[in-house]
Structure formats: C-alpha cells, structure tokens
Amino acid sequence: MQKFLSLALFAALVFTGCSSDDNNNTDDGGGEGDNPVTATYRVTFNPNWTEAQFPTDYPANAAFSNILVAVHAPGNNVFRLGQQASAGLQVFAETGDSSALATELTSSGSEDSVDFFVTSSAAGGGPTAAQSVNVTVDPEKTSISFVVSMTPSPDWFAGVDSFSIVLPSDVLVSEETLTLSVLDAGTDSGDTYNAADNPTSPQGNISIVNTPPIGTSGGLTPAIGSITITRTDL
Predict the structure, then answer these.
(1) Rounded to an integer, what distance in angstroms lies between the CA atom of residue 167 and that of residue 35?
(2) What is the per-residue pLDDT for 112?
(3) 5/15 Cα distance (integer angstroms)
(4) Which of 10, 176, 188, 230 holds its CA 20 to 30 A away from the CA of 195?
C-alpha cells in the first residue's frame, strides 16, 4: 500500500539508536585503522507487537516471520526507504516467505564474489518472542541490514537499512540498539491487517506506516520493537 511521506519523514532514518563502541581496540584486535578486522556479531530482534501498543483492530493471530540478516558492503542495500521493493522483498513482506529474498541476495555479485552474506533464523515467532542470529563482518562487508515480515498484514514489515558497524574513528561498534518502525512495502494497497489481496499498480515506494491500525489518528507510529547488535568476539 503506497503512502506519501513529508519531506522531513522521507529524509529521516528508519531507526534510531544508542551505541557503545570498543575504544580499547587496536589494529590487530578489533577495529582501529584503515582496515577493520573480521568480527562476529549477534543480531537479536525484540518485538513488541502487543494489543496495548497497537490497540486498533489488534489481530488474534499476530506473529512475525523468521528474521533475515544480510552483511554487505556499504554501497549495497536490501531495501531503501522511498524506493521500490525488490521482487524478493515483495514476496517476503506479503507472505512471510524469505526464501526468494535470500536467493535474490545471495545470487547477486560477480562470479568470484557475492554481494551479500545472508543468515536467517530457523522459524518465526509470536508478537513478543525474541529471535537471534550470528553474523560475521569483514573489511569489505561492514554493513548489516535486517528485515522481518508481519502477519497478518497486506505488505508490512520492519527493517534496518545498512547499519554500519564501523564508527567514524574506524572503531567497531561493540553494541547498538535500534528502534524499529513498521514499513509498507508499497506492493499491496490493503490498509487493514486482514485486507483482501489488492496489488498496488503501479508499484509504490517503501514508506513508514503512519495511519491506523499501525499509526494513530494523529499520524504517530509506535515502535514495533527493536534489534540489538552485539559484538561477540571480544
């Protein structure tokens, strides 16, 4: 379902967060200098899709798909706010099936290298059930993207677009928590959780959902949860 954002919203980040960095790193121990070393991170999704938080038409069968996390170079993207969703992301947002998106991402790149390292959790979970995966970043792939689909919904999902684990000082982030908004993939025009299939033609752009039942009548959008990215090899 296509939404129209104000210029301010369109320019805003999909997420906000508070970070702590590893200021004790050295060039051979975790992140200072021109070439950050390989590091491992645990990405944990902590959802908060509750009736108290989202009281309008709250669905009895609220749940999330499995989570998909991609590690990639800064110039690559799984999605971008204000741009069209890929075919794989459309399927994921509308059905909760991540296989097409995973194939789409892992098949991109050259014969000698792939653009995305993709990791998915084994299964989805309830509206407040945490999910976690472990990922590895290297000097060439220092961005982490995350997506999870909501069910039931027309084409709504939550995600993080290209979070960099390298701070401006070339120190690797040790932990960061990012707050998630609900996003509309722009591929289905339904405006309720259980709306009938109604493909958007022409396809719209990815946007923040700021109308009921997700947003309030005043256009405010509560957080659907958060993800925490924690370095695990220190």
Answers:
(1) 12
(2) 65
(3) 16
(4) 10
